[in-house]
């Protein structure tokens, strides 16, 4: 049984879940704060790009996890 590999997969999955959750929380907070203090709309665009980058990273890592499990026959 490959318990260390399963631990690695679970750890990476938790990291991805944390990144997704924190990205959404920080993105919503940035949108709210930006509107509240009257930041220029270009800053909102930067917040959007940063959130998209984090979510794209999460998608790539999740795809790698899926492929790793597929190769392991699970």
Give a description of the structure.
This protein is mostly helical. Helices cover 91% and strands 0% of the residues. It contains 2 helices and no strands. The chain has helices spanning 3-37, 41-72. α1 (3-37) runs antiparallel to α2. The longest helix has 35 residues, at 3-37. The relative contact order is 0.14. The mean pLDDT is 90.
How are the SSEs placed, and which strands pair?
Layout: H1 3-37, H2 41-72
Helix pairs in contact: 1-2
How would you summarize this macromolecular structure in one to three sentences?
91% of the residues lie in helices and 0% in strands. By secondary structure, it is mostly helical. α1 (3-37) runs antiparallel to α2.
Please tally the β strands and state the result.
0
Q: Helical element count?
A: 2
Largest sheet: none
**Low-pLDDT sequence parts:** none
Descriptive key words:
74 residues
